[in-house]
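Can anyone check this?
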Amino acid sequence: MRQITSKLKPRSGFAHVFHLLLTLLLPILIFILVRIDFAQLGLALIFLSKWRMFAVRPRHWPANVRANAVDIMVGISLLIFMSHSETASWQLVWAAAYTIWLFFIKPGSKVLMVSTQAMIAQFCGLIALFLTWGGSPLYVLVLTSWLICYFTARHFFTSFDEPLARLFAYFWGYFAAALVWLLGHWLLFYGVLAQPALLLTVLGFGLSGLYYLEESDRLSVLLRRQFIFIMIAIVMVVLVFSDWGDKAL
């Protein structure tokens, strides 16, 4: 499998330069398509750029889809942010953010970089979900939230030697779906940030930080208490001071 990947993704020579140019061209083309109101073609480009997922035997497809889910999630999210931006300046900012993701964040393979990729994907994915489909039926929000959190959790655990990675990912996805189902009946927004996305981001960052520090032998009792206190404090502030009427903030 590693040999196939190296052939499809060259690391030196003319082919490597050509690959980098094509990668750079992707956010540029998406920016242009959004500017001329053809965002759907930008979405097609994002999926087309992942053709390598299916350049292997079909039995490898599910694993490749799972491995590329985070990258697809970030690409679609930034395309949505671009589409919802009212000025060309902000659209350029999102295009630049996508470029940074493709060249500097996505290629990282160390534990910290993989963890960062997962957190960025979950944060962007949840915001984009409620920003675009906040008015969709509740089951759509629940199912999509489960997929986002499941795939990001699986990605997070890929760099750790965790035997229960699949179980933890299922659990996090189920927790996200349950939270969205509950809060979806009183869906509140703080600007463009939906309340379920805010809570899942706080809890996700906190729990992943605790796990990362524990695995790297840097988690002290005091640090653990600080993490837990901050998470509980933020969640309580959000829940207590939210307007639970049938309206958006």
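Reply from J.R.: I decoded it. Residues 61-84 form the longest helix (24 residues).
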